[in-house]
Description:
- The protein has 217 residues and is α/β, with parallel strands linked by helices.
- It has one domain: Rossmann fold (3-Layer(aba) Sandwich).
- Helices cover 35% and strands 24% of the residues.
- It is built from 6 helices and 8 strands.
- Strands 1-2-4-3-5-6-7-8 form an 8-stranded mixed sheet, with helices on both faces.
- Helix 3 links the parallel strand 5 and strand 6.
- Helix 1 packs across helix 6 and helix 2 packs across helix 3.
- The longest helix is centred in the C-terminal third of the chain and has 19 residues.
- The chain is globular.
- It starts with a strand and ends with a helix.
- 38% of the residues are buried.
- This is TEX30 protein.
- InterPro entries: AB_hydrolase_fold (IPR029058), KANL3/Tex30_Abhydrolase (IPR046879), NSL3/Tex30 (IPR026555).
- Pfam families: Abhydrolase_11 (PF20408).
Amino acid sequence: VKVKIPFGNKYLDAIFSVPEKKPTYGVILTHGAGGDMNFPHLVSLAAYLASHGVLCLRFTCKGLNVAYRTKAFKAAVEYLKLCDDYKLSGVFLAGRSMGSRAAASVIRQLSQGDDDGFIQGLVCLSYPLHRPKLQSKLRDEDLLLITCPVLFVSGSADEMCEKQLLEGVVSKMKAPKKIHWIDKANHGMAVKGRTADDVMEEVNAQVFSWLRENVQL
Length: 217
């Protein structure tokens, strides 16, 4: 179902992937710095979640400014919260690469205000912990302040998320957290000798089983 999410004086393009049965929980999903909501990994995950009873709202927000992307993500959260078609008990925020930074930023900001418990957790696909070859400057400030459950799905060969560095950050996080490493995958989740579909099946199954650990699906 295609929808337009009000965002300031503009609209964000978005698509609902709707399960057959009435969903209790949802996932809001967005893309990285390049691409849009039709990025194959997002389409694949949204379809998988919907087929397993989880509503998925994915949206496009162009712009390479994290603060701007965070505002857009907030607009999507508000939209879903007030959406009469789906009365959800809660929602998980999920993003790929830069989208996961925006999701983390939203959760940190909302948890400092009046947190109503609507947001259940955070899913970070290929979280960009640092710029390539610039491991000294970590983008961990939001992660360290979040208290809701967090799942990281990252490639063990991700040039923007060195394994030991992410494990170090995660060990300092207050939130319940889990990392699933995709063996030999790069930042784009490509693995030599494996098809993209095969890798996505692993990612999708991991995300869904983690959601199920955290809420009654």
